[in-house]
Design a protein that fits this description.
Low-confidence stretches: 1-11
Shape: extended
Mean pLDDT: 79
Structural class: mainly alpha
Radius of gyration: 28 Å
Number of strands: 0
Number of helices: 21
Largest sheet: none
Oligomer: single chain
């Protein structure tokens, strides 16, 4: 038994070891560590912590002992913390010079503060900075990772994009007063986000799933929805016929659908599709036809996602028409069936 536990502990990945360590040290200490990590690292560790398998006390002890053995081997005299150096240099040089010296050693503290903005929706960050001076907006874009900066730029007024990029391209250094104002802006943005915290709900998809499972007159409910808002009703109907529902159909239904579809459109729609959808469609077809479809998909090479989505929407429109005409018994949701 001990040998088995030792093998399991020795094969535990570094991410799982880190997750176990964070779970062992308590919420406050774990939060202090995670504040120093990047967004991708936080997401990875959060996933590992949520899915950590059952680990016995003996296994946990061995994993933690391995961690502290590694720490003892590599620690020695630890480097001075940022706060320690700031206090020491403040006494030696005076407050005016401390930040520039320490930033050159540890990297700008502002970078760490801006990390928090990456967790907010880009439209929220853009809203917070929309009324700030363009130079302040440029500083924001300059200090954020390119992916986040690009997403935020897309939500700022389009007519200002070229000016902001020009300002970013000409930035060489940022004065202390501007950094102080930037920190104030970040604080205001985070406080606003905290007050606006909400849970996202995919309303059209939920309404579609409810309708798909409704035993009453679905057609009547759709017509009533159209009286409320025709556009909302249309989105709900589209969600009722999602492309992934192809994987739920019988071979007979899929064969009937394939007979009605254009082969080129089907090949395009299956590009990048979920493996279960592709497998269901291909297995319902004669082998030679399935091979020709796979060859057609390969011949397409890289295609824009927009074209793929258009092909899928066209296919689902045809399927919806067949279903409404009762030409097929299309299964819109997972349910138990008998023959």
């Amino acid at each position: 038994m001990a040998e088995t536990e030792g093998v399991m502990a020795s094969t535990t990945g570094n991410a799982d070891m880190a997750a176990l360590l964070l779970l062992s040290m308590g919420e406050e200490a774990a939060a202090g560590i995670m504040r120093r990590l990047t967004r991708s690292e936080v997401e990875l560790l959060s996933q590992r912590m949520a899915n950590l398998p059952q680990i016995s006390t003996a296994q946990a002890r061995e994993i933690l002992e391995r961690f502290f053995d590694h720490y003892r081997q590599h620690s020695g005299i630890s480097a001075a913390s940022r706060s320690y150096l700031e206090r020491t240099l403040d006494l030696a040089l005076g407050g005016g010079l401390v930040r520039s010296v320490v930033d050159s050693l540890y990297g700008d503290e502002l970078q760490q503060e801006l990390q928090q903005l990456q967790w907010l929706p880009p439209e929220s960050v853009a809203h917070c900075f929309r009324d700030e001076h363009p130079q302040m907006q440029a500083v924001l874009l300059a200090f954020l990772p390119p992916e986040s900066a690009s997403a935020i730029l897309a939500h700022l007024p389009r007519e200002a994009h070229d000016d902001l990029l020009f300002r970013v391209a000409n930035l060489k250094e940022v004065r202390a007063p501007v950094l102080q104002e930037m920190r104030a802006c970040i604080d205001r943005c985070l406080q606003h986000a905290a007050q606006q915290t909400s849970t996202r709900v995919d309303g059209p998809r939920q309404a579609a799933d409810i309708l798909n499972r409704f035993d009453g007159d679905r057609g009547y409910l759709i017509e009533m929805l159209k009286l409320h808002d025709a556009q909302v009703a249309g989105v709900v109907e589209e969600n009722m016929y999602d492309f992934v529902t192809l994987a739920r159909q019988t071979d007979e239904v899929l064969q009937r659908i394939v007979e009605e579809l254009d082969t080129d459109t089907l090949a395009l729609a299956l590009k990048g599709a979920d493996a279960t959808v592709r497998q269901a469609v291909l297995e319902a077809m004669p082998r030679r036809m399935a091979q020709a479809l796979e060859d057609g998909m390969s011949a397409l090479g890289l295609v824009p996602l927009r074209r793929v989505e258009q092909a899928r929407q066209e296919i689902m429109r045809q399927i919806r028409l067949l279903h409404e005409q009762e030409a097929i018994q299309y299964q819109l949701f997972d349910e138990r069936v008998v023959s």
